[in-house]
Design brief:
Blueprint lengths: L8 H18 L1 E8 L2 H4 L8 E9 L1 H4 L15 E3 L6 E7 H9 L3 H7 L4 E4 L1 H14 L2 H19 L4 E3 L2 H17 L8 H8 L4 H15 L5 E3 L2 H13 L13 H15 L5
Parallel strand pairs: 2-4
Antiparallel strand pairs: 1-2, 1-5, 3-4, 6-7
Helix pairs in contact: 7-8, 8-9, 8-11, 10-11
Length: about 270
């Protein structure tokens, strides 16, 4: 797995130090920190940057203040974003925001919970978030999220005889996620190899994808190259088959259950500084 999801030890240490600094500076506790970009998907290049994402919780009084602790006329911030440098991109969402997104079956947040690269996590909190994600999971909404992503990348980058080669992966991953949603009861995994193993275990397209992945993981960012017939044909066929959209259930969840979970999680983490 290390060669598929490579994390340099010095970068891991830098991310952990950054998270510790965030906890001190903002008086919060990080419940989950993971990798969200191409390294988490499993097709990073050696020069790909690091996209660390985290979910954090404040002390209970922060959520119960009469006057929100912000500047005049400003809403209370529910994100923490650090300036992006050349290699590290670190940002996070407050627990209440995360649960609100879970209740909308937000695919990005579900991916964080399924990331193969975890920098730091509170096991109990992550289990609670995953339980909420499953309860509120909308196969239909999630399918359209991934299909629109596949379609826009397909239209934008793969139509000519010369294509931006790495964009194949940015169409294949959401396209396979759509297939997963059609066939499985759980949300799709983040890791590309898990999607491939389940949905495209063999055949000409798989062989061409494996060859492309080998090049992508070994070289600096790939630019453009000739159309790869086996992959292009597979994508064109699968996109055409889904043009109408699927018959899938929409999500629905229990608002009072979610409120109770939020209060329970706050109570559990209220003592985390003391």
């Amino acid at each position: 797995m290390d060669d598929i999801h490579p994390i340099a030890p010095d970068k891991r240490a830098a991310i952990l130090a950054t998270l510790a600094d965030i906890e001190r500076t903002h008086d919060v506790r990080v419940l989950l920190a993971c990798e969200s970009g191409s390294r988490g998907w499993g097709f990073s290049s050696p020069d790909s940057d690091y996209d660390a994402r985290f979910i954090y919780v404040h002390r209970q009084p922060w959520y119960l203040s009469v006057n929100e602790s912000t500047g005049p006329g400003e809403a209370q911030r529910d994100v923490i974003e650090l300036p992006i440098d050349d290699e590290l991109d670190v940002s996070g969402w407050d627990l209440r925001k995360a649960l609100r997104l879970v209740s909308k079956s937000n695919p990005t947040l579900i991916e964080w919970l399924r990331s193969p690269i975890i920098y730091q996590q509170n096991d109990a909190a992550v289990a609670q978030l995953w339980e909420a994600a499953k309860r509120f999971y909308s196969p239909l909404g999630t399918w359209w999220h991934y299909f629109n992503m596949a379609r826009s990348n397909h239209r934008g980058y793969l139509r000519g005889e010369t294509v931006r080669t790495k964009k194949y992966l940015y169409v294949l991953r959401p396209l396979l996620a759509c297939q997963w949603i059609e066939n499985e009861s759980t949300p799709p995994p983040m890791a590309f190899e898990d999607l491939l193993q389940r949905l495209l275990p063999s055949g000409p397209a798989r062989e061409a994808i494996d060859a492309l992945l080998t090049v992508k993981r070994a070289s600096a960012e790939i630019t453009a190259g000739p159309r790869i017939t086996a992959i292009s044909d597979y994508i064109d066929q699968e996109m055409a088959a889904r043009a109408e959209g699927p018959q899938l259930p929409a999500g629905h969840g229990d608002g009072p259950w979610l409120d109770a979970l939020f209060r329970q999680m706050l109570a559990e983490h209220a003592q985390h500084h003391g």
